[in-house]
Amino acid sequence: MGWGDEILAAGQAQRWYEADPSRPVAICDQRGRVRDHPIWQGNPAIASPALVQSGVPVQRVTNAPGCRPYIVYPFTRETGWTFDQTFRARDYVARIYLTEAELRRGLHAHATYGPYVLIEPFTDHGNFLWHHQRWVALVEACPDLTFVQHVHADSVRVPGTHQERATFREACGLLLGARAYVRSESGLCHAAAALGVPTVTIWGGCMDAEVLGGYPLRVDIVDAGPGSPCGRWLRCQHCRDAMARLSVDEVASALRLALQMGAEVASC
């Protein structure tokens, strides 16, 4: 999951820091080495390697490649993941601190397009792929909504959308400017939870939404077919079939619900 894993790590650090704000939290690997990551930039809950080296008292949490809290180890690419049922991502909501330049991405997009829904159809994990034509159909099914597509080098344009090229952190700024976000499971879905943005997450049948989903302001679309979640690392027919069962109407309805949730929060 990449950046999403590091947002989950920040969520663990946030929970520990709120319990003891006198000491920031150092996020460590299996060997106890203090880690750093760009998504943690500016986060007062997280102790950087330099801060730890300076002798400041810290708390320590272990979360790194090879020791993620939601995965049962060991696993292989062939067997795929088994998910630790004692972990719930919604219990560890992170915070993300954006720079002024990153915040301006969302402000500028909103000023340019008006209220918008952000989407990102691209995924490099085939088991999370909701077919491109369904994204096209989703936009066509919601003619009253303005869609902005977060794009990068590998993106395929969705007709009827405005495109914004952005890095991950810049895309977080675009999230903050959006009414809602629609995406298959990814790091930016966890970023949206950290930023309080209503989100529709299309899970398919690979990952365990009970373990990794369920955030506030989140509508999770999960395949209920046999064998889900399979946890497969390599591409599999089960996941293709699971994604195919998730209809455009189902995602469009979920988007309407997410927009309603966001409006209710805004009116409070």
List the helices and strands and how they pair.
Blueprint: H1 3-19, E1 25-28, H2 49-53, E2 59-62, H3 100-113, E3 117-119, H4 132-141, E4 147-151, E5 161-165, H5 168-177, E6 180-184, H6 187-195, E7 199-204, H7 209-212, E8 218-222, H8 237-244, H9 248-267
Parallel strand pairs: 1-2, 3-4, 3-6, 4-5, 6-7, 7-8
Provide a brief overview of the structure.
With 268 residues, the protein is of the alpha/beta class.
List keywords for this structure.
about 270 residues; alpha/beta; Rossmann fold; 8 strands; about 35% helix; about 15% strand
Describe this structure in words.
- The protein is of the alpha/beta class.
- The protein has nine helices and eight strands.
- It has a six-stranded parallel sheet with strand order 5-4-3-6-7-8, sandwiched between helices. A two-stranded parallel ribbon has the order 1-2.
- The longest helix is centred in the last third of the chain and has 20 residues, at 248-267.
